[in-house]
Design a protein that fits this description.
mainly beta; 2 domains; 22-stranded mixed β-sheet; 54% strand
Length: 352
C-alpha cells in the first residue's frame, strides 16, 4: 500500500493526491525490509576448542605413558649342575635375544651357566622386568637336559627400546646336544675348546646365525644353521667328523656363507646343503687330503661364478682332482633368486 510522503497517511493505490494534506502522490514505494542477520554460533567454536584440547591431552598422555623414558638394567643368572653325566642336552628358546654360546671349564659338577641381561629404556606402562625367564633341569640316565626360556613381558609394546643378551657358558668336558632358537636376534657359536658335538641346531627368525667349528671339535651328528630373514654362516676349519655328517645352511631371505678348510682326513663324508630363496650363496673351499664335489643351481635372475684351482673346470658341477677320495665333501648350492659365488682350491698332498 502507498503512503503519503509528507504526512504518512495510508492511501489507496489509485490516489493521485493525499486526501489528508493534498500532497501529490509519488510512485509507489514499499516499506523498507529489514533482514535479520543470523547470530554467530559460538557453541560450535567452543566445541572445536574442547575437542582439540582433548586430542592434545591424549597425545601428551600417550607420550608420557609409552615413550621409552625409564632406564632398564636387568641381570639374572642360572646354572645347571649334575654328577655322573656325559651328555648335555641344552635347549634355549627366546622370542627376542642375542644368544652367544661359549665354552670354559666350570667348577664342580656345573655343566652350563646362563647369564641374561636386558638394557635400554621402557615406557611408564611397561613392566619393570622386561623379560621373564624359565629354567628346567632333568637328568635321564647319563644325560642332563637343561631348558632355558626367555620371553618378553610386554610383547606388544612397540615403543620399548630394550636389548636382551643371553650368554651361555658350557663345560667342554661333556658331549653336547645343542638346540638354540630365537625369534628376533642373533645366534653365535664360537669355540676353540676340544669338544664333541652330537647335534647342533641354531636358528633365528629375524637375525643372523653364525657357527665357527675349529680343529679341536668332533662333529658326531647333524649340523643345522637356519634363518628366515638374515644371514646364515658356517666356518669349518679342519674340524673332525665322526661318521657321515649332514650339514644344512639355509636362509629364506638373506645370504648364506660357507667357509670350509680341510687339510686332514675325515672318518666319513660330509654332505653340505647351502640354500637361499632370495639372496646369495658364497662358498670358499680349501682342501688338501680330502675330495670334494660341488653342484650349484640358480633361478632365472641369478648366475654362478667360479674361481677354482685343482678342480675339473670353471662350470658346475666341479670335482677336485682326487674325487672320490677316502673322505669327501659333497656340496650342493642353491639360490632361487640370487647368485652363487664359488672359490675352490685343491692342493694334493697337503695333510695335517
Amino acid at each position: 500500500m502507498p503512503y503519503c510522503r509528507k504526512c504518512g497517511t495510508q492511501l489507496d493505490p489509485e490516489s493521485k493526491f493525499c486526501y489528508n494534506c493534498g500532497t501529490p502522490v509519488t510512485p509507489t514505494t514499499t516499506a523498507p525490509v529489514y533482514v535479520r542477520q543470523p547470530a554467530i554460533r559460538k557453541s560450535s567454536s567452543v566445541a572445536a576448542i574442547i575437542l582439540i584440547s582433548i586430542l592434545v591431552f591424549a597425545l601428551v598422555a600417550a607420550i608420557v605413558v609409552f615413550l621409552p623414558m625409564h632406564q632398564v638394567s636387568f641381570t639374572q643368572s642360572n646354572e645347571a649342575s649334575a654328577a655322573n653325566v656325559n651328555t648335555l642336552n641344552l635347549i634355549v628358546n627366546a622370542d627376542v635375544a642375542n644368544v652367544n654360546i661359549m665354552f670354559k671349564n666350570l667348577s664342580g659338577n656345573q655343566r652350563a651357566t646362563v647369564n641374561v641381561t636386558a638394557t635400554g629404556r621402557r615406557g611408564m606402562s611397561s613392566s619393570e622386568k622386561p623379560v621373564s625367564l624359565a629354567f628346567e633341569e632333568k637328568t635321564i640316565a647319563q644325560t642332563l637336559r637343561y631348558t632355558v626360556g626367555i620371553n618378553r613381558t610386554d610383547k606388544w609394546n612397540l615403543f620399548n627400546n630394550v636389548q636382551v643378551s643371553c650368554e651361555v657358558y658350557i663345560d667342554p668336558s661333556i658331549n653336547l646336544d645343542l638346540i638354540v632358537q630365537t625369534g628376533t636376534g642373533g645366534v653365535s657359536f664360537i669355540t676353540s675348546s676340544a669338544l664333541t658335538i652330537d647335534n647342533l641346531f641354531l636358528a633365528t627368525t629375524t637375525g643372523s646365525v653364525e657357527a665357527t667349528l675349529t680343529e679341536k671339535i668332533i662333529i658326531a651328528g647333524p649340523v643345522e644353521i637356519l634363518t628366515t630373514t638374515g644371514s646364515a654362516q658356517l666356518h669349518w676349519n679342519n674340524t673332525s667328523a665322526s661318521g657321515n655328517i649332514p650339514v644344512n645352511i639355509k636362509a629364506t631371505t638373506g645370504s648364506v656363507t660357507a667357509t670350509i678348510s680341510q687339510n686332514k682326513q675325515l672318518s666319513g663324508n660330509v654332505t653340505v646343503d647351502a640354500e637361499t630363496t632370495t639372496g646369495g650363496v658364497v662358498l670358499a673351499l680349501d682342501i688338501g687330503s680330502v675330495g670334494a664335489r660341488i653342484e650349484a643351481s640358480t633361478g632365472f635372475l641369478g648366475g654362478t661364478s667360479v674361481d677354482q684351482t685343482g678342480f675339473s673346470g670353471d662350470a658346475v658341477p666341479l670335482q677336485s682332482g682326487n674325487y672320490p677320495a677316502q673322505s669327501n665333501f659333497d656340496i650342493a648350492l642353491r639360490a632361487t633368486t640370487g647368485g652363487i659365488q664359488i672359490e675352490a682350491n685343491y692342493e694334493p698332498g697337503i695333510s695335517n
